[in-house]
Amino acid sequence: MPELEVKHVNVYYGTNHVLQDISMTIEAHTVTALIGPSGCGKSTFLRLFNRMNDFISDFRYEGSILIQGQDIYAPQQAVEELRKRVGMVFQRPNPFPKSIYDNVTYGLVLQGVRSKAVLDEVVEKSLRQAALWEEVKNDLRKSALALSGGQQQRLCIARVLAVEPHILLMDEPASALDPISTAKIEELIYDLKQQYTILIVTHNMQQAGRVSDKTAFFNYGHLIEYDDTGRLFTQPSHEQTQNYITGRFG
Amino acid sequence: MKQRERLIEALLALSAGISVLTTGGIIVMLAVEAAHFFRQVPLGTFLTDTQWTPLFADKHFGILPLVAGTLLTTGVAIAVALPLGLIIAIYLNEYATVGFRNVIKPLLEVLAAVPTVVYGFFALTVVTPFLQRLIPSMAGFNALSAGSVMGIMILPLVSSLSEDALTAVPRALREASYALGATRLQTAMRVVVPAASSGITVSVILAISRAVGETMIVAIAAGQEPRLTANPLVPVETITTYIVQVSSGDVAYGTLEYDTIFAAGITLFILTLVLNNVGYWFRQKFREQYE
Amino acid sequence: MSNMTRNRLLDGAFRAVGLLATMLGLLLLAVFLLDILRTGLGRLNWQFLSALPSRFPERAGIYTALLGTVWIMVLTALIAVPVGLAAGVYLEEYGRKSRWSALLEINITNLAGVPSVIYGLLGLNIFVRFLRMGSSVLAASCTLALLILPILIVATREAIRAVPKTLREASFALGATRWQTIWYQVLPASMGGILTGIILALSRAVGETAPLLVLGVLAYVPFAPKSPLDEFSALPVQIFNWISRPQQAFSFNAAAAIIVLLLITFGLNGLAIFLRNRWRRHLP
After folding, report:
1. What architecture does CATH give domain A4-245?
2. Nearest-CA distance from C232 to chain B in Å?
C-alpha cells in the first residue's frame, strides 16, 4: 500500500478553483518536491495533507486523500490526531516565544506527557536529529527567539520530530535562510528520508534536484507532470515543464 | 498669503494648547485647593487615619476608608470583567466566524454607550434584590452589586482591548501550534494568550483606572458610608461618591469640610494618572514587540 | 479516556462557555432594557414629557430637564467641536516629530483617562466660581466640552489619517497652500469620520451625570432655561434625584426618564454607526 494516495482532488476558495482534478501516489521514505510558479496551488496542495486549509472560511474540497489507506477527510478523523502523524515545517521559522526546551516538548505536553525523564530524552533525541543539539545543549532554557534564523528553523524541525510523525510537510523551509543554513537543512532532509516520507515545496530548482526523489510540477492549479526528479529535469515530457525549469517563466 | 497661513497655524496650535491648559488647570486647581486642606490636616494623618468623618462632630480625616471602598468596588468589577472579557475575546478571535464577530462586536459596544446613571438604577433595582435572594444578609447598598454592574459596564473595554492584543499575535505561531496537533483551546491558552499577555495587562490596567474613576453606579448602589472593610456585602463609600455627595450637598464653600473634596479629588487624580501612564507605557512596549 | 478525547472535549466545552459568555453580556443588557421598559413605560406619556418637576411623583414631569439636556447638548457642541477639530487638524497636519507634539500626545491620552468627576471639580472652580457663571447652562457646557475634547481630537485625527496621501500631494502639486489643502481636500474627505466622532462624543456628554452634580446642577428647576446663563436641570440629574428617593412611585418616574435618555443616546449612537457605514463605502 502506498503511503499517500491522492484521488481526483479539487479545491475551491469560494468560486476560485485553485486545484483541478489532482491524482498522485507517493511511496514511503521518499522525498517529493512540489514545484511551480507562485500561485500555482502547490502550497494549498501541501496543506491538504494536514488539513491546515480547514482554517480558511471559504475552503471547499472534493475527492479523496488517503494516508496508509485511511481517508483523512473522513468525518470520524480527528484533525489533531492527523496533525500528530503529519508534521509541518513552515516557510519562515516560527518558534514560540518560549524556551528552546519548551518549544521542543510542546507537542508532547499537548498530549499530556508530563514525565521529565521522557521529555528530557525526547528533547535531546529530536535536537540531535535536527543537527542542533551540539549548538544549544547548554542553553536549553534560553528563549528560542535568541537563536539565529537557521537555528530557529532547525528548532522548528526538531519540534515537529519530537511528535514522531510519519510524514513531513515542508513549505519552502529554506527560502528565508542564508546559503550555509540552507545547506544544513538540505543535508538534514537527506538524513530524515530514512525514517520519514517528505513533501517539500520549493522555488529553487537546484534544491529540488538535490534533495528529492520525485518531482511534481504544478501550474494554474493543474498537476502538469509528476516523475522521477532526474527524468523530469532532464527529459520533461511537457513543454510547460521545460519552459519552467529552464527559467522562461515563474 | 504667508501671513494668513501663519495666523491659521497659530490658531490651530492654540486650540491644541487648550488640552494642555486643561491638564494644567486640573493639576493647579487640585493642588491649590488641596493645599488649603493640608494646611489644617497633616498628610500623615490623611494617609494613616482609619476613619473618614469630616461631616460629623468628631472629625477624622483618614482617606483609607474611601480608598478601601474604591478598591473593593473596583476589585469586584475586575473579577467580573476580566474573566468574562478575556473569554469573550478568545472566543471571538479564535473560535467565532467573521460574520458572527461582525454582528456581536457592535452589540457589545452598546454596553459601553449606556449612561452610568442608568447602570446605577439597574444595580439598585434589579441586581441588588436578585443578589439579596441568594445572600439574605446582604445590605441594600453594597459593593457587590455596584461592582458587578460596573464590571458589565467595563466589559467591552476589556474584551476589545484584549482582542486587539490577541489579534496582534502573528498567525504563524497559531499555525505552528495547530500543525503540532493542538486544539483551538490549547493553542489559545498555551501560545496566543501568553504571547499577548502584555496587551492583556494593558486592558486590565485601563479597566481598573476606569472603574476607580466611575461615579454614578457606586454613588447609587454602593452606599455613602466610609468604611475600612473588605466585605462586599455592606455599604461602603468610594472617593468619587464622596466628592459628589459633598459638592451636591449643602456644605459651605471655603470651609475645611468643603476642602475635603479636593483632598479626595487629588488622591483620585493621582491614582488614575499613575494607572493610565503605566498602561500607556505598557502599550508602547507591546507595540514595539511586533514591529 | 485518551488524552486526545479529553483535549477535544475541553475544546468543545470552551466553545460553549465562550458562546455563553459572549451572550451573557447581551442577555443582561436585554434583561435590563426589558425591566426599564416594564417599570417606566406606564409612566411615559405626554403629561410626563410636558410637566414641570413636582414633589408629587404622579404630577412630576421632565419638561425642564429635557430642555436643559437639549440646551447643553447644543452649547457643548458649539464650544467643543471647533476647538476639537482645530486641535486634531493641528496635531495631524502640523505637529512635527517634536518634543511639543510628544507632550501633546501623552497629554491627550491622559486627559481621556481623567475621571469625569474631576472635570466637575475643575468646572466648579473655574467656570462656576472664578468666572462667576454659577450652575448655569454655560458653565455645564464648558465643563462637558473639556470632557469630550480628547474624544473629539482622537476621532478627528483618525479620520484625517484615513485620507490618502496622494490627495494631499495632488493638491500641493497644484500650488495650494497647506491650509487650502486641508480646507478644500482633507477636511471634506474626512468629514464622515469626524461627524461620527462628534456624535459619539455628544452622546457621551448627554449621559454624564457626575460632573453636573459636582457643578451644583439642581433637579428642581421649575422653568426652562432662556439664556446660557440661566440655571437649569438635565435628564441624568433628574434621574439620579428620583432614584435617590425612597418612594416607589419615583422609581417609575426614574425608569420613564431613563427610557427617554436611552432613546437619545442610542439614537445618537445609531446615527453614528449609520454615518460611519455610509461613509466607509465612499472611501477609495
Report:
1. 3-Layer(aba) Sandwich (3.40)
2. 15
